[in-house]
Amino acid sequence: DPAWLNILGGGLRNVSPALSHDGSVVYVTTSGYQLHAIDALTGVELWRTVLERRRNGARGPNYTPVVGDDGTIYVGFDDGLFAVNPDGSVKWLFATAPRRIYSPPALGHDGTIYVGAARRNDGQLYAIRPDGTLEWSTRVTGRLVNTAPVVDGAGTVYLAADRTLWAFRPHGNGQGGADVKWSLTRFARRVLESGTVIGPGRVLYQGSRDTRLYAIGERG
Fold first, then answer.
1. Confidence of residue 126 (pLDDT cuts 50, 70, 90)
2. Of the candidates 213, 209, 181, which has an alpha carbon nearest to the alpha carbon of residue 196?
3. Quick one: which of 101, 107, 120, 132 has the fewest CB in 10 Å?
4. DSSP labels for 55-104?
5. What is the pLDDT of residues 35-69, one digit of tens each?
6. CA 171 – CA 129 distance, rounded (Å)
7. What does residue 60 show for φ and ψ, rounded to 5 degrees?
8. Contact partners, residue 90, CB within 8 Å, separation at least 6
9. Cis-peptide, bond into residue 98, ω within 30° of zero
């Protein structure tokens, strides 16, 4: 039997929960527009915050939240990336319209938040400072659905988009744009809904709609 059950009254399709750093609070989104905080021991809902007006959960993007070192919860929806305080109040919103966020953000070691947003096949990768201001951004072709960026131990940011795997240096080119470390276009079909995983030795594992799993060595 489960330790507890909480009926949240909203869709949880394709969403994973996140934990506070002390493990006492579970954060989860429902229906693609609201964020819940639940006591991890009792299952009691501590608060819920409605971040958008629209219910979007039926479309199935991955609205999984992530938690920063200071306890801030980051989650992307249609309007952009929300930063939410541990008490449920909104810290800031980084707007991405007309592009929408369909994948979770990733956190760099210095607190920079990396997130992709797209309108149809017009994607954009953003590097956002912890205060909600833009450090750099770059356009990438791809829908960016369930293809979250990932960051390795050296700070390199990887993003799979369309038929390309990109590697970006973390701090951009100093002029608001990306600093591309390398890009690899070897996929016969799109890597839609197939995020990158970093393995031992900085080997990258990437799935594709061509039914293959690729292992890619770090390229310098």
1. very high
2. 213
3. 120
4. --GGG------EE-TTS-EEEE-SSEEEEE-TTS-EEEEEE-TTSB--S-
5. 999 999 999 999 999 999 887 755 568 899 999 99
6. 10
7. 85, 15
8. 49, 51, 82, 83, 84
9. yes
DSSP symbol at 110: T
Token pair listed for 120: 């149809």
d(CA 166, CA 176): 18
Q: What's the whole-model pTM score?
A: 0.92
Fill in the amino acid letter for 27: Y
Assigned token pair, 194: 């197939």
Q: For residues 129 and 107, is the Cβ–Cβ distance under 8 A?
A: no
The model's pLDDT over 129-149, given as tens digits with 9 standing for 90+, comes to 999 999 999 999 988 988 899
Q: Average pLDDT of the chain?
A: 90
Question: In angstroms, rounded to a whole number, what is the distance separating the alpha carbons of residues 19 and 37?
Answer: 9
Nearest to 75 by CA among 112, 33, 26, 14: 33
What strands, in cross-sheet order, belong to the sheet with 34-39?
18-19, 25-30, 34-39, 45-50
Tell me which residue has tokens 């915050």: 49
The rounded distance, in Å, linking the Cα atoms of 82 and 32 is 12
